[in-house]
Design a protein that fits this description.
By secondary structure, the chain is an alpha+beta fold. It is 38% helix and 21% strand. It is built from three helices and four strands. The chain has a four-stranded mixed beta sheet with strand order 1-2-4-3, with helices on both faces. It is globular.
């Protein structure tokens, strides 16, 4: 579980990132979960955009992705979800205590 200070730090790091996944009309599927899981291992911090035509609520999408990838939900703002998971092999982000 992330502290408030750690979430604030991760939000500042994610501010300049572009969304690299888009959740559309079909919603979240196994293939997308696997790809997000792989990218989280490489990058640790990613943004995901929920498109207007997505039938699921953005909060539900965030919850599904968080549980399926064992990631931490940093933020849901507008239609953008920010996820963080510490990499087991290639740790890049040093969280404050």
């Amino acid at each position: 579980m992330l502290t408030g200070k750690q979430k604030r730090y991760l939000r500042s790091q994610a501010h300049h990132l572009n969304a690299i996944f888009q959740v559309g009309k079909t919603g979240v599927n196994e293939n997308m979960i696997q790809q997000i899981d792989d990218v989280l291992e490489k990058r640790e911090l990613i943004k995901i955009s929920v498109l207007q035509n997505c039938l699921e609520d953005k909060e539900e999408v965030a919850q599904t992705l968080t549980e399926a990838t064992s990631a931490n939900l940093v933020q849901v703002i507008g239609n953008t979800i920010v996820l963080y998971r510490e990499s087991s092999e290639d740790k890049r982000i040093e969280l404050p205590n």
